[in-house]
Amino acid sequence: MASEAARGIPHYYLYGDQGADVELDFLHIEPIRDRSGPNDWRIRPHAHPDHMQALLVKEGGGTIRLEERILPISVPGILVVPAGIVHQIDFDPGTDGFVVTAALGCLKAAAASDPRLMGAAERPAVYPLEGTGVSIPAVFDTFEWLHREFIWSAPGRRTAIMAQYMRLLVVMLRLSVTHDDPGIAAPDRDYDLLVRYRALLETHFRSERSLAFYAGDLAVTQARLNTACKARAGKTASDLLYERIVIEAKRYLVYTESSVAQVAHLTGFDDPAYFNRFFTQRVGVSPGAFRKQALHREA
C-alpha cells in the first residue's frame, strides 16, 4: 500500500461513512460487530486522515493489514491504528469487542499531560494482553465504561468519556513499552510529511496563514506539501490549515463565553467581520448561529 496506491484508498471518519469530518472533534465508540457484521466481517482498505483508532478484540480474531504488513489479531488484544495509516481488517465471524475512533483534537487534549501518550497513539501496533502485566479485566472495564458513557446522556458525560479515554491511552503506553518492535508499519514520505505538517500547524495556525511559511519550515516546496496532504489526507494543505482554525473557533464558541469578536482575535483574525465571513463560508452558518445551535443540542 505505497503512496501511489494510497491516493486511491477511501478516507473515512467511520468505515463506510461518506460524511464530512470537520464537525467531528470528539470520539465515537461502537461494538466491532455493529459495523463488521453487516460487511461480512471484512473492513476493506481505507484510512482515517483526521482520527486514530484503538480496538479491543475480546473474542474471535482474524488478521489486520497495516500498510505493508499483515498480522494476526491477538485475542484478547488491542489494535492501534494511527491517523492516516491505511489498514484492512478481516475478522473471524462472530468477533466481538469495541472500536474507539478519536479525533486528533480529542487525542491531543487527552494526551496533553504526558507526551508519551501521544507517542503510543502514533505507533501502529497489535498488542496481545496475555502475559503483559496489564490487568485484562481493567482493560475490558475501560472500554465498557467508555461505551456506557458514550450512549448515555448523564451529567458530566464528556468529562467521564475523556477520563476513560485517558485511561485507554495509558493502557496503550504500557503495552508499547513491553514490546521491542519499534513499529509495525513503514509509512512513506507522504505520511511522514503530513504528520510533521500537522505538528507545525498546532504551533502556528493562529498566526501563520501562508503555505510558504509551512513549506519553508518543512524544507519542501508548496507543491510537494500539497501532494503529501492530498495523498494521505485527501485534502490540500490549505484545507487542513483552515479546518484547524475552524475547529479551534468552534471550541471557543461552544466551551467559553467569549464574544464572537474575542473568538476572532483568539484564532488570529484582526477583523471580526472577516472572521465571520471565513467561518460562515466553511461551516454554513455564522459563528453566532453555530453557538446557538450547539447550546440547543446540549440543553
Automatic annotation (TrEMBL):
Keyword vocabulary terms for this entry: DNA-binding, Transcription, Transcription regulation
Domain named HTH araC/xylS-type: residues: 195-293
Entry keyword annotation includes Disulfide bond: no
The keyword DNA-binding appears for this protein: yes
Gene3D superfamilies xrefs: Homeodomain-like, Jelly Rolls
GO molecular-function term, one example from the UniProt record: DNA-binding transcription factor activity
InterPro entries cross-referenced by the UniProt entry: Cupin_HpaA-like_N, Homeodomain-like_sf, HTH-like, HTH_AraC, RmlC-like_jellyroll, Tscrpt_reg_AraC-type_HTH
Name of the protein in question: Helix-turn-helix domain-containing protein
Organism placement in taxonomy: Bacteria, Pseudomonadati, Pseudomonadota, Alphaproteobacteria, Hyphomicrobiales
